[in-house]
Design a protein that fits this description.
5 copies of one chain form a homopentamer.
Chain A lengths: L1 E10 L2 E2 L8 E7 L5 E10 L8 E6 L16 E6 L2 E4 L2 E5 L1
Parallel strand pairs in A: 4-6
Antiparallel strand pairs in A: 1-3, 1-5, 3-4, 5-6, 7-8
């Protein structure tokens, strides 16, 4: 999984029917030192994450493991809102 | 998913039979600030996207979740035409 | 999918039994402006592509969607020989 | 698989229910010469790896092959704690 | 698939039970001109490849297509030992 920060939302009305009701978040990746990377994902959200929160994003078929997402053409999913990231030298992030 | 801008089309007559009738779009990736990236995908299209429109592209097995695509050797699919991309500071894109 | 140009072939006699009869092509990726990239794939071929032809390459589980390839440990497949790549400003490639 | 060094942990209380009890490790990738790379994964742990240990990380659907992980939206798993990495010129790493 | 050169081995005793008896090779990727790249994989071996041999490596779910590997959390497999790589200008590699 990747650590990412929620930047905003992507809205679409013209999409595959299976995607009705899917919320798409624009998330920017964070590196292992807590710095923002010039990389992003648009990920479906199943945890109700809000702007500026740090989240875990799963990619690939992992995004379709939850029963309600299993038939949707998704390749990225926000699976958790992060509370803390801890390394040997201390807290990298705390919500 | 990735945000991308439709550049054009790729046409092939000599292809696997399962691909008859599949429309292939050439799409250029857009970054999280709305800038074009030097990266692209050739993706099947299930939403009727046109040149210059911004779309969401799913990669990998996500491209084969729709029943009519399930047996085709595809690894990228345009799943939505984007209306808006919104971040904290405002609209990054509006159709 | 990626656009690629066929460079040559890879031959192996010592391989998994399921790969008997599989033809492996060495293909170099082409970017969205028609330039060769310093990236390649070794892909199985199901369309009879020849050296210098431009092809579409699918990656990942897409390479195992055709019945005859479904049990082989393949992660890349040439799925089509390209006739034309067209963008707003004209033809990027014509066979 | 990738060789990686365990840096720390990621904790989340607000997550998909299937992830209850899943331990998330922050691991930094190591290259083929034993140097740390500026790349990381957040991976589930099934072997009880500790900080500073070198581990093997599997990505993608490989992370869901163990029965207890099969329904979780995971895309990375620590599958082994490394004892040694040996190359022609000697030991690259020994635990 | 990727062309790679076998560098050595990775040994682990503390690993998922399904991996008992799996041999892990450290392989360095080779580019389309035959040069070594600063990229590697740790791949399971099903063909008995030795140090310095050139091999084909499949990634992702391809690594679990062989019956004996189907339940193991693997994302890379050496599927063939390469005899020759041939391009228009001649032999890039011959075993």
């Amino acid at each position: 999984m990747r650590i990412a920060k929620v930047l905003g939302t992507v809205v679409s009305t013209q999409k595959d029917l299976s995607l009705q009701g899917t919320k798409f978040l624009l998330v920017q990746r964070v590196d292992h030192e807590g710095q923002l990377l010039p990389e992003y994902d648009v990920a479906a959200d199943c945890v109700g994450a809000g702007v500026d929160e740090w989240v875990l994003v799963s990619q690939g078929s992992a995004a379709r493991q939850l029963p309600e997402y299993s038939q949707r053409p998704l390749d990225a999913l926000v699976i958790a809102i992060i509370d803390t990231v801890s390394v040997a030298s201390g807290r990298l992030y705390s919500k």
